[in-house]
Amino acid sequence: LSVLPTDIPSTVISIDLSHNSLTKIESSAFSVFSDLEKLDLSHNIIATFQDTALHTVGSTLKWLYASNNRIANINDVPLRMLRHLVYLSLNDNSISYLTPDAFTSFSSTLETLELDSNRLTQIPSGIFSGMRSLETLRLSNNNLTSIPDFVNLPVPNSLCDLFLENNKINSSQSSLSRLTSLEKLVLYGNQLITIPSFSNAQGNLQELYLQQNKITGIVEADFDKLSLKKLHLGNNRITSLT
């Protein structure tokens, strides 16, 4: 398919258009689907959405899959139309930057945000404002040089799974102390030379993945505030345990 079919029943609540050849989403594409909750547009060649393409589903859409496309600018996806989104997948696109207000319209409802395999070099701290329900954040395979700043993430919050593997992170300084519900932190395949700093707030952390970094040594204090069940440190440069 290269264009949206016109004979889809208007009563559907889920539409799967993945693995087709769609190049853009026209302004009236979903105008008749007043009950649509799930839309899968992954694995197409979409570069842009018309400004009002998602307007009529703004109050109903909860799951939007747009991974494996050609989206370069988050503003090309009219997310401001969506007010109750729970799941957003934008993996495997060409997004190089995000504006602080990119997800504002559904910040209080979003539970999963996937931005793996894009071209991001930094994440604006303001982007997490209001994300009290966020549980899973995926930022793997980008060009990040530091752990995102979570200073604007509400406390308490729900973030339990944070994926940052295969970036270029070389600084362990961060605001991880705000992640009071964090259970899984994935940082393998980066350029860390020291263990990230943790506080008593990370008492829920169960799994920590730090393999394939440049860590040279470990001291007891690195983990004394944690109650880990899984710790991965393979393929580093560790020469001492003190």
UniProtKB/TrEMBL annotation:
Keywords: Leucine-rich repeat, Repeat, Signal. The keyword Cell cycle does not apply. Gene3D superfamilies: Ribonuclease Inhibitor. Signal peptide: none annotated. This is Uncharacterized protein.
